[in-house]
Amino acid sequence: MLKRHILLIEDEINIAKFVELELKHENFFVTVSHDGREGAELALSNEYDLMLIDVMLPNLNGLEICRRIRRRKETPIILITARDAIIDRVSGLEAGADDYVVKPFAIEELLARIRAILRRVERPIINDLTINHFTIDQKAHQVFYLDKEILLTKTEYDLLVFFMENNNIVLTRDVILEKVWGYETEVETNVVDVYIRHLRKKLPEEIASLIETVRGVGYVMRT
Question: What is the distance between the alpha carbons of residues 145 and 134, in angstroms, rounded to a whole number?
């Protein structure tokens, strides 16, 4: 079985050591950095299967590290944050993170999120998805509108693909969490609302308007 390599950037020594040991126990290779600037250099100069990045780091914060990585790579990123406000989640999305966990977290939840993202990366490729002048090239992992590329994070991309694959079907927040995030956990379903709100902002109005809110239930993409 192929061993995955994870980069962990966390300045709290005890947390970093605990997470490192748990990841190694689960058969991952782990590289650890306790400094933001050093962690950014590692992230940009080496290839990893996934990165765990704390938001509050010395010398360079986790959000800026995300931004720098996203300019050059699509490696999945999970942010580790001590804050759970909506604005903090949105900031993470804008920086390019695919998911986040809030301290204190259960290691089982973190491992579930890691496995879920890695499964999504390995998901089989099917044909292109197209609506009007809007196309998802699944082989290239790119989204285009009128031949202009729209840049999305991994989670935003997977969320959009899920809607287009299930167009005209009402999807509950729980179903979206399970199918897109790929895990069952106690994460609040308003995480889905945050990601959809942010996805809509990135899409052209013609497409964003197709994703409708079904009050008290979830969402549907009507085409």
Answer: 4
Task: Note whether 52 and 9 are within 8 A (CB).
Answer: yes
Which among 70, 63, 54 has a CA at the least distance from the CA of 13? 54
pLDDT digits (tens, 9 = 90+) for 128-145: 678 777 888 877 778 998
- Per-residue pLDDT band for 64 (boundaries 50, 70, 90) equals very high
- Residue 179 is given by DSSP the state I
Distance (Å, whole) CA 178 – CA 18: 27
As a whole number of Å, the end-to-end CA separation of the chain is: 41
8 A C-beta contact, residue 75 and residue 50: yes
Q: Is residue 27 over pLDDT 70? A: yes
Task: Inform me whether the pLDDT recorded for 187 exceeds 80.
Answer: no
In three-state secondary structure terms, 180 is helix
What is the distance between the alpha carbons of residues 177 and 184, in angstroms, rounded to a whole number?
A: 8
Q: What is the mean pLDDT of the chain?
A: 86
- CA-nearest of 201, 196, 198 to 180 is 196
Long-range contact pairs involving 107-110 (C-beta distance under 8 Å, separation at least 24): 107/18, 107/19, 107/22, 109/183, 109/185, 109/186, 109/187, 110/19, 110/52, 110/78
